[in-house]
Design a protein that fits this description.
Elements (H helix, E strand, L loop, with lengths): L15 H6 L4 H9 L2 H11 L11 H9 L1 H4 L14 E6 L8 H8 L1 H15 L3 E7 L3 H16 L15 E7 L8 H8 L23 E5 H13 L1 H5 L9 E8 L5 E6 L4 H6 L13 E6 L5 E3 L21 E6 L4 H15 L5 H18 L7 H15 L3 H16 L1 H5 L1
Parallel strand pairs: 1-2, 1-4, 2-3, 5-9
Antiparallel strand pairs: 5-6, 7-8, 7-9
Helix pairs in contact: 2-7, 2-10, 3-4, 3-7, 6-7, 6-8, 7-10, 13-14, 13-16, 14-15, 14-16, 15-16
The structure holds flavin mononucleotide and iron/sulfur cluster.
The site of flavin mononucleotide has 22 residues, from strand 4 and helix 16.
């Protein structure tokens, strides 16, 4: 089942007409001619679409928060609680190692993101929107710029979209490429010209976001689902995948499997199916034996072979899906190297705003270096436990919790290999 990748092979990303020939921008036309913003939000709510950026928050509910002033009344918002100005941001930061799905959508079918963003902005009444892209993705930023200029020429973006009274601007904003800037409030800070570090929540961005105005931040893959939902209807979309999180997901499968890369699969596909089914991973690479699978990128949990029957979805799950990156690790892998790589990444990416993460990721990185050199000190085992607890329980934002996830599982699952 293909929703996001369906027309990738048919489309020339540098030619808007090839997107239009596959029915592209029909959904935007439909919303503008036939649907009120309220009806669009209702449709997205009914579809059950959840955000693909990591947390799986219901998309329609998030949009509703930005347009319901009564719910905003508990927070003082610049411009008043009835602020009419709103912003929409497409999150294409994608700075987690091993994930490249969002930038691939931008590369293969940029108009799918632009059309999804326009429909979404219209639904919440945002006249100004941003595509926030990691500044290292120059090729994808250039493709998006070309796509945008062609969409402006066709009057799909800008003033009087498709002859209507609706105005929506789109600006591409290049971030500096820090992992924490994918976190929505840190991202908003950087658009405002401030340091890339998270803000205290609540208030959440749909209530008080960019310049204090209601702002919705959605992942690029989330937005790429929107044209399909409008075209086929919420009923059809909600039949795909799992009832708790409908639709498909782009999985980035890496490691010791036969087929590596991006696979679109229905939500609720099990780890076993993704790794071993010939449509996807096709099983272990020749001569490799499965040890464990990391679900959800560098910040994800480690699933042992006994847990391969777990479904991959948003909602209640022992193995949160995160952004959808799946790393298959075989028995020849060096656990000490892996532990070092995780600690090195989080230590480097900690923004330094709070002590538990700034100090915790640094201490863990020091221990990881000693572990790799077979030079552990007597108190290191005890200190690792303290650091992991502190990161998990006292960090200001989820990055600190993420730094403890894979380490915590490794310490529980393979203590002898680490401290033995
Ligand atoms: C450290 C950190 C990094 C994040 N990076 C990204 C990212 O690169 N892309 C993304 O869409 N969401 C990222 N998120 C999640 C965003 O804060 C936000 O929840 C998401 O963009 C909302 O979109 P969605 O509802 O469509 O998933 C990150 C969160 C954290 C804590
Ligand atoms: S947990 Fe880490 S990334 Fe998050 S605010 Fe604290 S120092 Fe910054």
């Amino acid at each position: 089942m293909q929703v996001v990748t369906k027309n990738w092979s048919k489309i020339n990303p540098l030619d808007i007409n090839s997107y239009i020939r596959t029915g592209g921008y029909d959904s935007l036309r439909k919303t503008i001619r036939e649907m009120t913003p309220e009806k669009i939000i209702e449709e997205i709510k009914k579809s059950g679409l959840r955000g693909r950026g990591g947390a799986g928050f219901p998309t329609g509910e998030k949009w509703e928060l930005a347009v319901k002033p009564a719910r905003n009344a508990t927070h003082s918002v610049a411009g008043g609680t009835l602020a009419k100005e709103r912003f929409f941001i497409c999150n294409l930061d994608e700075s987690e190692p091993g994930v490249y799905k969002d930038r691939t959508i931008a590369e293969k079918n940029p108009h799918q993101i632009i059309e999804g963003l326009l429909i979404s902005a219209y639904a919440i009444g945002a006249k100004k929107t941003f595509i926030y892209i990691n500044g290292h993705y120059q090729k994808q930023a250039e493709i998006l710029e070309i796509a945008l200029s062609q969409a402006r020429e066709k009057e799909f973006v800008g003033k009087g979209i498709m002859g209507s009274a609706i105005d929506i601007k789109i600006e591409i904003f290049e971030g500096a490429g820090a992992y924490v800037c994918g976190e929505e409030t840190a991202l908003i800070n950087t658009i405002e010209g401030k340091r890339g570090e998270p803000r205290l929540k609540p208030p959440y961005p749909p209530v008080a976001g960019l310049f204090g105005k209601p702002t919705v931040v959605n992942n690029a893959e989330t937005l790429a689902n929107v044209p399909y939902i409008i075209k086929r209807g919420a009923g059809a979309y909600s039949q795909i995948g799992s009832s708790v999180s409908p639709g498909t997901k782009l999985f980035v499968l890496e490691g010791a499997v036969k087929n590596r890369g991006i696979f679109e699969a229905p939500m609720g596909t099990t780890i076993q199916e993704l790794v071993f089914n010939s449509t996807y991973g096709g099983g272990m690479a020749s001569g490799k034996e499965l040890w464990f699978v990391q679900i959800g990128g560098a910040s994800g949990r480690l699933a042992p072979p006994a847990k391969l029957d777990q479904p991959l979805l948003y909602g209640k799950s022992d193995y949160p899906l995160g952004c959808g990156s799946i790393l298959v690790v075989d028995k020849t892998a060096n656990l000490k190297d892996l532990l070092f790589a995780w600690a090195d990444f989080f230590h480097r990416e900690s923004c330094g705003k709070c002590v538990p993460c700034r100090e915790g990721t640094f201490r863990l990185w020091e221990i990881a270096k000693r572990l790799r050199n077979n030079d552990l000190r007597e108190k290191d085992k005890e200190n690792v436990k303290d650091i992991l607890w502190t990161l998990s329980n006292t960090s200001f934002c989820p990055l600190g919790n993420f730094a403890a996830t894979a380490w915590g599982d490794a310490v529980r699952m393979f203590p002898d290999k680490i401290f033995g």
